[in-house]
DNA sequence: CGTCGCGTTGATTTTGCTCAAGATGGGTGG
DNA sequence: CCACCCATCTTGAGCAAAATCAACGCGACG
């Protein structure tokens, strides 16, 4: 069960000590933002019963691209990355996975990408088959899954524009605005931004090299758009300016 | 109603003359591949009753990014493109839309991208609201929509890898393999490939310029991987070689 | 105290873009 | 039916943005 302190969790673990045994999900910090937010308390009880808590250390891998999709996951704390690899090692990070996010939205036989923990993380795990069954009998759950898939689909379209047409500076600015917006949606401070991933990861997400990402951060810093990078936190100094760069104005 | 001959439809229009009035959908050529394939004949009748046939000429625009998502569409013939624009005119084509494809999979308030016809096209149009209602009462329909969204999500992840990490040659090779595979899925010949879109469109899809696309085709032709480009058709001469380039081997 | 991973910065190279000029070919009107 | 026109495509030359190659700083950790 979750409950052990992690080194750098983005949110508290889902099950505070002492609550386990009754309905751990009722106390989950990210429930509202997760799939589970669609469920009534009784539904939540049976749903939670089918869940197994998982803990990962930084660097642990959760699933492999191509592997049979036996499980789906709902993240309760930490940060993960979803990525694809090419035979020669080139890597594209498909997305960063935060608390409340769901791994396995795209129903398919095999995982379309690998997933690995960036920070220590806690997740709830469920059998794909079991989720499908529940989704058949709980319309709200089904709707929530469909809505989350829709949102993911809309969001990834923005990423296509970024990778296909934006400059390095625009990509990095977009990335920062994205992190800031996500933090706000999760009820966290939009500024300074928590940036738990390495320059390498950011590069593989934005279709750039580490060096270009680093240079671009330096330039944004020199131009007074962002502040220093203390403790994996970046401060946005000129939100409007950054947003204009991000959108190509 | 559909039924008039088009200049260059990829498939026959959905409603052959004479069948209209009974259950036009029953005769639809692309039904099996479209949302409608999930429906029983009685369901299909009421579903089709809520549909309005639409015809577009090449260049006609169907929906605008940001516009309220009042309608959804199922394509019955022709080819369209879905795209996003930046303030300065840079364009990213999100995807090409073929017969059987659905416009509006990502349930949201506003269309996430614009859609415009590349060739003359015919579509079935339905109110978003009405589709949602039907989807609530027909589990098979709901499941089909969810499955199609899942597939779209998985496919777009491959596009992220392409745009973020592949070379020009790899992109074009991937594009051709993609077209070939799609044709096969629709029961059409995988070779030669029908390429109804302009070099410009291909460029905006692959994150390249027209010139680079053109040069890359020339190179593939010179290297004997593909044949000439007669009548918007390209022949694959070395499928394995092309596939290896596409996948980065 | 040395090592290792990560980030930054600099020098050089390369890929694909930009700018420019022809080629091609379908469509239109004389 | 032919000539012209305009879109689209192709090819070439030079350029620029980002990649690559390389060196170094810095903090964490053994």
Largest sheet of chain A: 4 strands, antiparallel
Query: Helix proportion of residues of chain A, in percent?
Result: 25-40%
Question: Using only CA atoms, what is the Rg of chain A?
Answer: 19 Å
Low-confidence stretches of chain A: 1-20
* H/I helix tally of chain A: 7
The CATH topology assignment of the largest domain in chain A is Jelly Rolls
Instruction: Report how far the terminal alpha carbons of chain A are from each other.
Output: 48 Å
User: How many discrete structural domains of chain A?
Assistant: 2
Query: What's the multimeric state?
Result: homodimer
The CATH homologous superfamily name of the largest domain in chain A equals Jelly Rolls
| Class of secondary structure makeup of chain A | alpha+beta
> How many beta strands in the DSSP annotation of chain A?
11
Mean pLDDT of chain A, to the nearest integer, reads 90
- Largest interface, C-beta within 8 A: A-B, 43 and 43 residues
Strand line-up across the major sheet of chain A? 1-8-3-6
- CATH class category label of the largest domain in chain A: Mainly Beta
Approximate strand percentage of chain A? 15-25%
CATH architecture of the largest domain in chain A: Sandwich
Order of helices and strands of chain A: HEEEEEEEEHHHEHHEEH
Report the principal-axis shape of chain A. globular
